[in-house]
Amino acid sequence: QVQLVESGGGLVQDGDSLKLSCTASGRAFSSYAMGWFRQAPGKEREFVAAVSWSGTFKQYGDSAKGRFTISRDNAKNLVYLQMNNLKPEDTAVYYCATGTYSDSAGSYDYWGQGTQVTVSS
């Protein structure tokens, strides 16, 4: 069974930085793309970032460009999301997922339970 577990969320202030981590088990981690999505109350799940199986290719949602960085460490089965200059509108539950490299949630077949990020002004 594939299991993804996010960590690193918390309460921060406007302008702060935060680094999320996601650990994976039960799958050949290095063979699949990893993505980060987020969902705020009353809103649809939003694409944040994705990285290909090798780490060579990356893409970001409009809200993340210039502020967030996705990376992975295949030897440790870890994917990260470094978030800088956080804003209140970044407040959401952040989910990691594994599947096919894409900006669409439907391309990912396994998901973590999410970690809450709250940014206060």
Characterize the structure shown.
The protein is mostly beta strands and 121 residues long. The strands form two sheets. Strands 2, 4, 5, 6, 9, 10 and 11 form a seven-stranded mixed β-sheet that branches. It has a four-stranded antiparallel β-sheet with strand order 1-3-8-7, with no helix packed on it. The chain contains no helices and eleven strands.
Strand content: over 45%
Total beta strand runs: 11
| Overall 3D form | globular
Q: What is the distance, rounded to the nearest whole angstrom, between the alpha carbons of the first and last residues? A: 40 Å
Helices, by number, come to 0
Main sheet record: 7 strands, mixed
Helix content: under 10%
Taking all Cα atoms into account, the compactness measure Rg is: 13 Å
Q: Order of SSEs, N→C?
A: EEEEEEEEEEE
Alpha-beta classification: mainly beta
Low-confidence stretches: none
Overall mean pLDDT score? 95
Short description:
0% of the residues lie in helices and 52% in strands.
Secondary-structure map with pairings?
Elements: E1 3-7, E2 10-13, E3 18-25, E4 33-39, E5 46-51, E6 58-60, E7 68-73, E8 78-83, E9 92-99, E10 108-111, E11 115-120
Parallel strand pairs: 2-11
Antiparallel strand pairs: 1-3, 3-8, 4-5, 4-9, 5-6, 7-8, 9-10, 9-11
Protein traits:
four-stranded antiparallel beta sheet; mainly beta; 52% strand; 121 residues; single chain; seven-stranded mixed beta sheet
